[in-house]
């Protein structure tokens, strides 16, 4: 089974996240972030995104109200600019034709993950899991293990695919091989420095590795 990260791997969500973050920051009196600053904060979930954008992080008295504003705005605007990366839908179509199981494990909140998976990947992705009260966020391997069990893939070859150092650590913690992608939120050089052994530059390159 192939287990995909979502943001930065299957979907280009950066603009919607950036707009939502700055909406919340400016509403509560914080300095807005540049797109590059927002990208650098992505990968550990939306709580970490908002915490990293304000002085004092979660200890800031304004954190909770700012986070709530962000989440409400973002959930209402999930699909304003978000779209699959070029070549992703062709890849998923070919993988489905080859009868390869596919799932998503993301550090995005679970409602958002499931909504986006249905919106963009219905018929391709077998199961999508985000962060919720019963699932620890990556790099903990819990969600990966839950997905593998849900899809009865314990005895199959399972591979994790993602765009960040968090995904590399998640795969390591789950005992899986990892394929990194260079089109997401981290540069190829950064991925190499983070320990990536296999990096692809276009979705179709994944097919040659299977």
Q: Topology of this structure?
A:
Blueprint: E1 2-4, E2 11-12, H1 14-27, H2 35-41, H3 46-53, H4 63-76, E3 83-84, H5 88-97, E4 102-109, H6 110-121, E5 127-131, H7 142-150, E6 159-162, H8 165-174, E7 177-181, H9 188-193, E8 199-200, H10 205-209
Helix pairs in contact: 1-4, 3-4
Overview of this protein structure:
The protein is α/β, with parallel strands linked by helices. It folds into two domains: 2-12 and 83-209, HAD superfamily/HAD-like (Rossmann fold, 3-Layer(aba) Sandwich), CATH 3.40.50; 14-76. Helix content is 45%, strand content 15%. The protein contains ten helices and eight strands. The protein has helices at 14-27, 35-41, 46-53, 63-76, 88-97, 110-121, 142-150, 165-174, 188-193, 205-209, and strands at residues 2-4, 11-12, 83-84, 102-109, 127-131, 159-162, 177-181, 199-200. The strands form two sheets. A six-stranded parallel beta sheet has the order 5-4-1-6-7-8, with helices on both faces. Strands 2-3 form a two-stranded antiparallel sheet. Helix 1 (14-27) packs across helix 4 and helix 3 (46-53) crosses helix 4 (63-76). The longest helix is centred in the N-terminal third of the chain and has 14 residues, at 14-27. The protein is globular and about 50 Å long. 40% of the residues are buried.
